[in-house]
Amino acid sequence: MRHVICMVSDFFYPNLGGVESHIFTLSQCLITLGHKVIVITHSYGNRVGVRYMTNGLKVYYLPIKTMHDQVVLPTLFASLSIFRNIYIRECVEIVHGHSAFSTLAHEGIVIARLLGLKAVFTDHSLNGFADISAILTNKLLEITLSGVNHCICVSHTGKENTVLRAKVPANHVSVIPNATDTTLFKPDVTKKETNQIIIVALSRLVYRKGIDLLASVIPIICKKYPKVHFLIGGDGPKRLVLEQVREREGLHERVSLLGALDQSEVHGTLLRGHIFLNTSLTEAYCIAIVEAAACGLQVVSTKVGGIPEVLPPEMIRMAQPDVSAIVSALDDAIDSHLKGTCMSPWECHQFIHRTYNWVDIATRTQLVYDDVKQQPSLSVGKLLCRYKNSSQTSNNKSGIGNFTPSIEQKKKPILIFKESGFFWKEEKN
Question: GO: which molecular function terms (predicted)?
Fold first, then answer.
């Protein structure tokens, strides 16, 4: 069954990130499968209007100014006419929004549902419940998801988080992980330094990525191992913390801050390293560790969110988000490298190639589209009732977005973080 799909998100190229690469690669695979796919995002600098990318992927860069962190100001009514015009012009059947933090995704889905189109939403991240920003984001997500036909999460932990904070029934949420193009991430041992041990860390330099932990780990490891060098790629407000540590400890020759990297530079940077370090404090799914494993690096990561689901135990060393635990995991990885007992780079690459294949991900997403297309349409009146009910503080049990657990269910403990790997083992019901 051929579909006309519109991907909507604030996050797309030329901006770089996991959501951006997910939308682009998934769109390419869906086009290969015979579907028509377009993308709607906001303008980036002078990139305004319609642009065409690989395989004729049509991208609408809307002339809307961003408010904060590459997200537009939420208006709904101001963007209604332009969304409606694009949906009608392109004969869109299914609107697929990405990221709970994307204003355009929320607006695009709401407008699509009011026009009678089907809507799917993919949540790429975890969110808390306590601070004011999390509370507001969760309420907005609850309202939006009360009208969608189906929701996708990238990990089982992400699914549980979305079900809890958006009050979506679990049977309306599918788990489809991210993937990576393994043809772009191949091992090459000739690119590595033989007289050094290089630890690579690639991420945005923000608090959520655990940069404070990384800054505390660096001087400890450098004192213990004279041959260890750190290669850190990415930019952000926490870069200053790393620069201060490097200056204070006199590690200019052993800690390299590469700044923001282009997508084409990521593979070459990974090939220089022996160990990949991820210190995230929260993560629904970390595509960076998948790319590092595909390049044959040993992976050391904090044990948070959906990370335990991504790689099997023999391919990753996990530690609690604590300095001493991370240092201990790095000690083990360095010792394994020195003894030559670590897993073969090509074995790691083959595992990633078999497990995280974009064609498989696109096929599974296509099944969601097929199911959504067959669902009966909601009248505008019923849809508005769902939005109204989900926007109220008191919940009832009608509608997708108004699922409230019973008293008996509330008494039961809810497991947020799972340690088992669902993507390479069958889940037992």
Answer: phosphatidylinositol N-acetylglucosaminyltransferase activity
